[in-house]
Write a structure and sequence with these properties.
The protein contains twelve helices and twelve strands. The chain is α/β, with parallel strands linked by helices. The protein binds nicotinamide-adenine-dinucleotide.
């Protein structure tokens, strides 16, 4: 019997890497009945919204989805489809493994980190007030009323950073459970509690509480986020599972992607309750749209996580091994995995997928 899974190709390079991924998953022999639904800038004109209702309905129904990247206009325009999906479906945990595959040039011989990013709170909550609006003025007035020491220049724009006990508790538990599931030894909570004593302070306090339930099984420590950046660049091998509030998680994920060969190979999963949506860490890279140039690996490795999630462990392992082989050989890889980015022997998105499929056999 085949399993129904929602496929959202996305926009920019999304449809190309999504097609490559779909072909690789089908080649594992796992029977999947793909329900393709569209979100992003390409559907916006036709549907009047970048996130039509049928997308959410499909993910809610199938409980498992895989998605290509979707563009978010900077500064103005519609709000992020990615953030909306995570919030609407309460996909509170973002899991981003960062593993160094053989054949990739890196400053370090071994990197095998798991990043767990909180997905629903923090500055990503989308509670913002534009400079000069009456709402922002009222808010400033209220803040000064409540805290007479609060100093602000006139007419600031304001973004709110909510961090709750519930939100922190469930993500930190998720990080510990992930550590247990994958036989990891340590969870490091990342924060800026020395400055943001209330919000990040709460995250850290909850972290210390939750850690007590795992004492003797998984170790716990914490790092201030700026120090964490430096440590990750110098000694990533000292870390195991990292758990972070939303914004730091976003930034540190890209930093770690840089350590393991770039955004083209960094996968991810958004998980909450009984629903999971798999997607690469990277965005829609609009400049490469339609050029058959983007690296499909990040989305294919997201599918590796998806196969594991639906219980297809053998197929998941076979697909990861095939990807690892192609990267190690370094022949049929996209431009970003070549030592010289202008190397004319670099292959395109679909040719790299062909090579991965051939390596599966
Ligand atoms: P990006 O990840 O799209 O691209 C940054 C650079 O990384 C690219 O220019 C390219 O050089 C490289 N890159 C990324 N993916 C690659 C791939 N698969 N193969 C080879 N090289 C790759 O980041 P950006 O330019 O900041 O964002 C573009 C758009 O994507 C924005 O609208 C942003 O909001 C959106 N975005 C979406 C998601 C998502 O859908 N989950 C995530 C991040 C960004």
């Amino acid at each position: 019997m085949s399993r129904k899974i929602t496929l959202i190709p996305g926009d920019g390079i999304g449809p190309e890497v999504a097609l490559a991924t779909q072909r690789c998953v089908d080649a594992t022999g796992v029977k999947i009945d793909w329900e393709v639904v569209h979100a992003g800038t390409d559907i916006m004109e036709k549907a009047g919204t970048p996130l039509p209702d049928n997308v959410l309905e499909s993910v809610r129904r199938n409980k498992v989805a895989i998605k290509g990247p979707v563009t978010t206009p900077v500064g103005s325009g519609f709000r992020s489809v990615n953030v909306a999906l995570r919030k609407e479906l309460d996909l509170y945990a973002c899991l981003r493994p960062c593993k160094l595959y053989g054949g990739i040039k890196s400053m370090h011989p071994k990197i095998d980190l798991i990043i767990v990013r909180e997905n629903t709170e923090d500055l990503y909550a989308g509670i913002e007030f534009d400079a000069g609006t009456s709402e922002a003025k009222q808010l400033v007035q209220k803040i000064v009323e409540l805290n007479p020491k609060a100093k602000m220049h006139p007419d600031p724009a304001i973004s709110i950073k909510p961090i709750s006990v519930k939100g922190s508790e469930r993500i930190i538990k998720f990080a510990f459970e992930t550590a247990l599931k994958y036989g990891r030894k340590k969870v490091t909570a990342v924060h800026k509690a020395n400055i943001m004593k209330c919000t990040d302070g709460l995250f850290l306090k909850v972290g210390r509480e939750v850690a007590k339930q795992y004492e003797g099984r998984v170790a716990f420590e914490d790092r201030i986020v700026d120090n964490m950046c430096m440590q990750l660049v110098q000694r990533p091998q000292d870390y195991d599972v990292l758990v972070l509030p939303n914004l730091y998680g976003d930034i540190i994920s890209d930093l770690c992607a840089g350590l393991i060969g770039g955004l083209g190979i960094a996968p991810g999963a958004n998980i909450g309750g009984d629903t999971a949506l798999f997607e690469a860490t990277h965005g829609s890279a609009p400049k490469y749209k339609g050029l058959n140039k983007a690296n499909p690996t990040a989305m294919i490795l997201s599918a590796v996580l998806m196969l594991d999630h639906i219980g297809e462990k053998q197929a998941s392992q076979r697909l990861e091994n095939a990807v690892a082989k192609i990267i190690r050989e370094g022949k049929y890889v996209t431009y970003d995995l070549k030592a010289d980015r202008n190397d004319p022997t670099a292959v395109g998105t679909s040719q790299m997928a062909d090579a991965i499929i051939a390596a599966l056999k």
